[in-house]
Design brief:
8 helices, alpha+beta, single chain, about 400 residues
Length: about 400
């Protein structure tokens, strides 16, 4: 059904309320027209001033139309009669046209549309349908992407959880095996345990590691910090990349294992034992090593227990600092290359470098000939960053 058209002075209004306001404005305008001599320029000027000042209030655009009518009369005072006549005829024509359009609209509703209009409607409908199909396709694609992303995320969490569970189970079994009585003779470990031209004199493996070596030939020791989650076997092989992604059972594992640098030697032994471990989000491996950034934490956890398979050891922490992996041609202290000191001067120089980088002064120092232990993990504050804790071996009380 066509919408009803309301017309006053040639203007269309949508609602009955607007139409009623327009009729009231027209009554005011008709009175002003009747009371004003359009041939008197001064009277027209006064009327224009009153209209601009808002003395006569109007609710619709008819007021603006009337102001324009008055200004037109002032521009052509000699043609006032003809102007009003033309305006009235124009208004009548607009009213007639509006009425005809309304009537035509009502008739069109009841008649069948022409073939051309039908074709246009059909083409428009096809365009609309195609756009709807595209939107639906995009919606389904988005849902699919979200579903795949969710599945991948759940899968990643599941795999990661499985790795954690498997790793913890292996370490629990290893801990139990460590406490068991020796059940068989143990073969010599197969890791790079010496670097001298001649093999050093054989050493007896500690009883608590004999059972472990039967199953894990790459075992080189065990690291533990009391009252923390750090309580792990330490592996060693001739490839420093291997244990980044494998557990002690040689299985692929994102957590990796704690391992000793391939160039360190527990038989010689080297000046510094460097142990590496991942900085995991779950806190496994060396994930909580960064807690040593706070001096209060250090004061409560000053000692590290590190046994090689041949000898027990207690180490007191000296330095805690951040560093990174540098390019080969960068001339800078690289803690990860400090494995053997060629002399007292080099040893003392390295000690000074680490003391300068340390977050706080522990008051603990080392002398040339002391055995050192370094724990190293990733640090995400910069690219290739590292978090490092250095300790020296002390006599067991």
């Amino acid at each position: 059904m066509a919408q009803k058209v309301y017309v006053v002075e040639g203007r269309q209004f949508r609602t009955e309320k607007d139409y009623a306001c327009a009729k009231r404005d027209k009554e005011k305008i008709d009175k002003l027209r009747a009371s004003t001599d359009y041939k008197d320029k001064k009277a027209l000027q006064n009327l224009r001033a009153e209209l601009k000042a808002g003395k006569h209030k109007f609710l619709t655009l008819l007021g603006q139309d009337f102001l324009e009518e008055v200004e037109e009369q002032l521009k052509s005072p000699g043609s006032s009669g003809r102007t009003r006549e033309r305006k009235q005829k124009g208004q009548a024509a607009r009213e007639t046209g509006a009425a005809r359009r309304a009537s035509s609209g009502q008739q069109v509703q009841s008649k069948q549309r022409s073939p051309a209009q039908a074709r246009e409607d059909k083409a428009l409908d096809a365009i609309v349908q195609e756009e709807l199909r595209k939107r639906e396709k995009r919606r389904k694609l988005l849902i699919g992407i979200c579903a795949v992303t969710a599945a991948c995320s759940l899968g990643y969490v599941g795999v990661y959880s499985y790795y954690n569970y498997r790793t913890e189970a292996s370490y629990q079994q290893l801990g139990q095996l460590k406490e068991m009585p020796v059940i068989a003779a143990v073969a010599e470990p197969s890791g790079p345990l010496y670097t001298l031209d001649e093999k050093p004199e054989a050493r007896e493996v500690l009883d608590e590691y004999k059972n472990l070596l039967i199953k894990h030939k790459k075992l080189i020791g065990w690291v533990k910090i009391d009252d923390t989650n750090i309580d792990f076997p330490v592996m060693q092989t001739d490839d420093n990349e291997y244990y980044l992604h494998h557990n002690l059972n040689q299985q692929y594992d994102k957590n990796g294992s704690i391992f000793m640098d391939k160039d360190c030697d527990v038989l010689k032994p080297s000046t510094n034992f460097i142990l590496y471990g991942h900085h995991t989000k779950t806190g496994q491996m060396f994930g909580k090593l960064e807690l040593y950034q706070e001096e209060d934490y250090y004061k409560e956890h000053q000692y590290i227990n590190f046994d090689t398979i041949y000898e027990k050891g207690t180490y007191q922490i000296m330095y805690v600092f951040r560093s990174r992996v540098y390019k080969e041609d960068e001339i800078v202290f690289k803690y990860y290359q400090f494995i053997d000191a060629n002399g007292e001067q080099e040893f003392n120089s390295n000690m000074q470098e680490m003391a300068a980088m340390s977050f706080y002064d522990t008051g603990v120092t080392a002398e040339y000939g002391d055995q050192l232990l370094t724990l190293s993990t990733c640090d995400y504050q910069e690219k290739d960053g590292r978090f490092v804790v250095v300790a020296k071996k002390i006599a067991k009380e």
